[in-house]
Each structure stands twice: as C-alpha cells, then as structure tokens.
Write a structure and sequence with these properties.
about 500 residues, alpha/beta, eight-stranded mixed beta sheet, single chain, five-stranded mixed beta sheet
Length: about 500
Amino acid sequence: MYQDRIRCAALRAKVTSADDAAHLIKDGMCVGASGFTRAGDAKAVPVALAERARREAGPLRITLMTGASLGHDVDRLLTQAHVLARRLPFQVDKTLRDAINGGEVMYVDQHLSETVEMLRANQLGKLDVAIIEAVAITESGGIVPTTSVGNSASFAMLADKVIVEINLAQTPALEGLHDIWIPARRPNRGPLPIMHPQDRVGSPAIEIPHEKIAAIVVTDVADSPSTVQPTDPETQLIAGHLIEFFRHEMTRGRMPRQMPPLQAGIGTIANAVLSGFVDSPFGALQMYSEVLQDSTFDLMDAGKMTFASGASITLSAARQAQVFGDLERYRNRLVLRPQEVSNHPEVIRRLGLIALNTALEFDIYGNVNSTHVGGTHMMNGIGGSGDFARNASCAIFATKSMAKGGRISSVVPMVPHCDHNEHDVDVVVTEQGLADLRGLAPRERARLIIGNCAHPSYRDALRDYYREALKAGGQTPHRLELAFAWHTRLRDTGAMLPTVPSQV
C-alpha cells in the first residue's frame, strides 16, 4: 500500500525498519521531530530509539526539539530510557516533567515562534537529524505533512539528514491542506504576505532535495486523541462573561461588529470557552491560531465559523473519526501552517487578533503565571501564549477562580513566576467575573480583579493583603514579606488559607 504514498520512485529503496532508521541517531546529536500538541508526531522512530537505548550499554543522549507536545507516550519512553539530555520548546508528559524538575533533563521553555528562528541563526547549534511524519512524498521528493506542520518544515530544511515516517493511518485527503512558507533569514526578510486568515502564500509540501531523505519508515498509527474535557458550569460562565464583554465592546464602538479573528490556546478551558460561542450572537467567525481543537469544528458545524488557520489539528477520538473521515466537508475552510507563521507577531498584530489563553494563576495587578507551580516546578511550558498576548489587539487570560477542591486560589497577591506581565494582559476572567484592565493603574487593577475575579471565599483575604500593601506605598504596592505567604502555606500545609474555603 505504501508505494502509492511514495510517488518519488527513487526514494522507495529507502524504506526500512524503525530500528534501522533509529541507528542514524548517535549519542550527542540534536534531533528535530514533527509533532504539535499530539498531532502529526513521529510515532515509530523515537520509540525504536528508546528501545535501542535500553539494549545498548553505551551512552545515548540527545537534544530533542519538536513543534510542541508529543503523543503516544514518546516523551515518557525517551525519559525512562534516559535518552533526553535536553528538551525544547514544550511538553506535557508527567514523567518528563518530573525529570525536568529533578534536574535530569535540561528543559528550554520557549515562545513557540522562536525555536526555529534561533536554530536558523545558529544559536541552538546544528540540527543533525529530522524525523517527520508524512502522509505522502511527492514526485519531486516533497514531504506532505499529516495533521500538523509545527516546526517540521524548518527541521527538514535545516537538518543534515531526514527520516520520513509515512503514516498509512493518516488520510490521503490531508494533501493540499498545508501552506508551507518559511520566512527569509534576517536581516534581509521582507513582509510576511498574509492579510487574511484564509490567504495561502506557500506550497502544499515541504520541498527539500530528495537526497537528504536518508530513511523512510512505514507506520499505521492514528494520532493520540486530545485530552480536553467537556464544558462544565464554570467554563460556561467564563464563556458567558466573555460574550457579554464582546457585545459591550461592539456597542461602545471599541470593537468592530464583525469580530476580529480568534486565537485560543490548547486545553480544556480555552476549548470549552470557545465552544460556548456556538450559542453566541456572533457569526462569520474566523480563527488564526496554533491548534484547531474540537471547538473549531463545533463552530463550523453550527455555521458560526467560516475559516480556521492553525499549525495543527488536535481532536478527541470521536471528533478525529468524524473530521478525518469526512475531511472534504471542511477542506475549503482550513489551512495548516508552520508555527513560526501561525505565531508570527507581524501577522497577529496586522489581523488584530483576540487572543484567549489559560493561566495557572494571576495576581491582583494582572501578572500571569502560566507555567510554574509554586514558582519553581515546571508544569508544561509557555507555548505560544506569549506570541499572541504580546501582539493581539485584546489579550485575554482565563482560569477557574479556585483549584484542588478550594485549597488553591487562582487569584493571588503576587505570582511567584511571571510569564505574562501586566503590560501584556488586557483582560482576566474567571467564572466569578471579568476584569478589563486596559487603561488602569495598578491600584485600580487590584480593586477590580479582587472584586470581579476572585472567589468570594478568598476576597476578604486578598483585600486584607492589599490594605497591608498600601501601607508600604509605591506604584505597585506590595509587602514582600507577605507576598508569597499563600504559596509557602500551600507548600507546607496543602492549602493557601488556614481554613479551606467552601466551593459553594
């Protein structure tokens, strides 16, 4: 069956086993692998590499770059086999997370638009091998990606050798969905010619000299399904607050009646909030984002969304079967791009995006922590949220007001790690309410955030802290000896307050 997928006849002799292909990877190498939020990831060769590391006595440690997170427990298997010396720019695996926080794996948490920019500028060393999942190889040797582009195109272009995984489980209908365009090297770069989400400016395949393809491995494994959860009463409330906010902005003339293109981060809250727009008064929506989740197709099926541009398609198991089994239904409304294009500041600012991303916590002045538990322990990574927040026309961060059965408040006196500072955050929202921070000084922000976003069980404690902070004065009042008391109490006792608040 795979011969029809490898249309360059000269490359059919390169078909080999995953184990043989993995032997192209040596100790100390830098490897770039396809995959963006569990979609389009290389599924066979990394696993074979982990198995080889377990068998062999000698060291086998690599730097692994991807687009974002991987599926199929690849990060776990590589970590358990002690293959990963360095990992970037994003991950979601618990075993790898523990190794990162234990200092075994050096993790470089990066804005997703920057990894290949740095690689191209020789700031991250030389890329030895790229492993790219493909649905087909064209007559000229072009690689047709599957359900993500991510960093795959640049990895294939920059690596000394390329291993292609032809995945027969991925529908051939994916061919033609991609728009591969790579910015020129700085400082001789022209404008990125995307004026609308639906613009196509590149080619449908990754064009490289076919001599660079050192091995082809045939697989037949579907993408790992998304782990997002369905909407719940709290995420429905968050969606309701945002819909009312947008209606208000349009009434005031501060937002066009035709809503600007949307971006939504990966995860349960962002996906659920976006799904809430199915019942909103807004129509003809467009998306210019990284990950196209279930909610994207919910909106399309409801007649609410006309076009979506992203770097990957990451779906639940049921949605995978439905969307990829009937891709022609959506084809003219989708495009997949390299992530340095989907996340490019120039395009984000030009299109005036509304960016919706998720926070672990935010403080009373609007600073957001999206990566580090307790300020020290990495959760997943910043992903693309910074790319969008710093350049969107409206940067929104959402979270539930409490976590862990009420033991944790998501609104705190001071975030112990700051990924998005107050200058990049326009709106924060929880199920309790929304705070529009634009044009407000820190003291004004504090009162609004505490009153609108904090859970009622934590408001008095936050107001007590703020009153004490005011005694110290300053543009952004804080009492440093008290600022992290909630986090140290959580560390020591398992709760931020001496008495766990009721969730009612």
